[in-house]
Design brief:
Elements lengths: L11 H6 L7 E5 L4 E2 L4 H11 L4 E5 L6 H5 L7 E5 L5 H5 L24 H12 L5 E4 H5 L5 E3 L4 E3 L2 H4 L4 E3 L4 H12 L13 E5 L1 H6 L6 E2 L3 H6 L1 H13 L9 E4 L4 E4 L8 H8 L6 E2 L16 E3 L1 E2 L19 E2 L2 H12 L7 E2 L1 E3 L11 H6 L19 H11 L6 E2 L7 H5 L5 H9 L3 E7 L3 H7 L4 H15 L7 E8 L6 H13 L7 E3 L7 H8 L14 H11 L7 H10 L36
Parallel strand pairs: 1-3, 1-4, 4-5, 5-8, 10-11, 14-18, 17-19, 20-21, 21-22
Antiparallel strand pairs: 2-13, 6-7, 8-9, 9-12, 11-12, 15-16
Helix pairs in contact: 2-8, 11-21, 13-15, 20-22, 22-23
The structure holds iron/sulfur cluster.
Length: 614
Amino acid sequence: MSRQPLFLPMSLQEGEKQGIRQFDIILITGDAYVDHPSFGTALIGRVLWDAGFSVGIIAQPQGKSPEDFKALNAPRLFFGISSGNVDSMVDNYTPNLRRRSDDVYSPGGILKRPDRATIVYTNRVHELFPDVPVVIGGIEASLRRFAHYDYWQDRVRQSILADAPADLLVFGMGERQMVEIAKRLAAGESVCNLRDIHGTSCTMEVAEWRSARPEGIVEIPGFAEVARDKPAYARAFALHYHEQDPVRGKPVAQPHPKTIVIQNPPARPLTTEELDHIYELPFARRAHPSYMRAIPALEPVQFSVTSHRGCFGACSFCALTHHQGRIIQSRSSDSIIREVTRMTKMPEFKGIIQDVGGPTANMYSLSCDQWETGGACADKRCSPACKNLRTSHEEQCSLLTRIRGIPGVKHVFIGSGIRYDLVLADDSGYLELICNHHISGHLKVAPEHIALKVTKTMNKPGREVFDRFCSQFETLQKGKKKRQYILPYFMSGHPGCTIPDMVALAVYIRDHNLYTEQVQDFTPTPMSVSSCMYYTGLNPFTLEPLHVPRGQEKKIQRALMHYRDPRNRELVIEGLITAGRTDLIGTGHQCLVHAKNRTAGRFAGKYRKPEKNG
Ligand code: SF4
């Protein structure tokens, strides 16, 4: 294969310039093609090219247009299809299920991604090229690989492999799997034989499953059972959740009406050398030149650096454990320095590194010896409470200091979230360093809530830890010419959260002067622990029942976070009456809302009574 081009080809003419008559692999994506390592299609395309395969890209094809799908003819080996960097339903709809008017991954922000893009694209490719293998991947396929609750239809859907005519599904970060698939197909293996690749899922005929059930496989309740029985759904979820580990995870099987969905164990994490190599491939860090309008998602990440992958925080509402996993994979500081140095040579570079991070910024270089040999513990959560977790931030401090010293770099910001319980567990001066050099006016943190039973359900540190962090932050503000502030992210409507919990949070926000517009209303996205709780009303790991706010109660909870907004007054009053906190209605300095037009509690009595937190 020729050396890497400036951009991967998007047309036959661009392919011909690279001496390509037929592409080995064609990647189809719901995003515009931006040649940046934050965009999955560019990352996978560059890695495949590096492994010796020619790759063409079809970006944002019209679902109904055969011409778009035929633009590069048939590939020699396979089509790789993804919805893009986001799940199409999450991207196309607001949490209130209203259709969004724009898409930041599209030129000019214009909506082009069809609903359930992976299924739409796969069907169309299968119709046009029935003999060419199809591999689906990306966040949408990855997080819909088992039967799952779909918020947009409010029902359990089958695995995406039962809905889309694909031969294989790549889950998690896909570099290792995609290269193996390409090499084995190129060596003449049939796609039907590729059932043993870690980090992939496939289907098996029901008859074959009955006659030759593989050994050592964890069978979880099937689609028919989980679709009608919520405790079975919760049990199935807990079973597959525990197998999402590349070292100790076993294969998982879930029967569906016409097929058996098999998930192999997750792919082995990339080594430091492998990560370094991938992130130093010659990404243009720009959108393909054929686009006439800017792609909004590029601007905030164009000069950001990925320092590591994985997150052991395992927040319940985040499905990252099912995608990147808990084991932290860090790059070497030398590689990151080389990448930043290259950025400084770009004419668009203004001296600002927008972010150095991963899913959680301050997990760079943190580790546990257990990860290498035994994987992440199935029965324990990784946190500073575990003595095996190395929490020193020294390498991060040294990395940030080195980046600041690169000629042409004026500022280095931390844009990814930080986990403040880790900051408190370490004395290497990380917080002081980032306050002095790496945040502008605000430090974003995500306590999400302050009621202990809610933070426990979310698997977040409790209020006491957040308070200690705020106090340490305040101490560091003394003597500063320009004061900085904590910008907290809070969440309403999470399973386990009641209206009295939200009132407690609103009072906390008032007392600590933390009122913010940055409020998130919980959305049950595919395959998170919280989504399982939302659908079943159960904690999947204990099967204990949970309160789940829905409908009008969810609106009241959200309104309580924005209690100053006059449009929310009626809902806030309703919530305060329900919580038995009428003392917070009126004109006193402690009140959250004025009493004007106060009405009887239309919703009072429908919700849980006030209860003690924790
Ligand atoms: S020993 Fe502790 S840090 Fe290591 S995997 Fe287990 S829980 Fe996580």
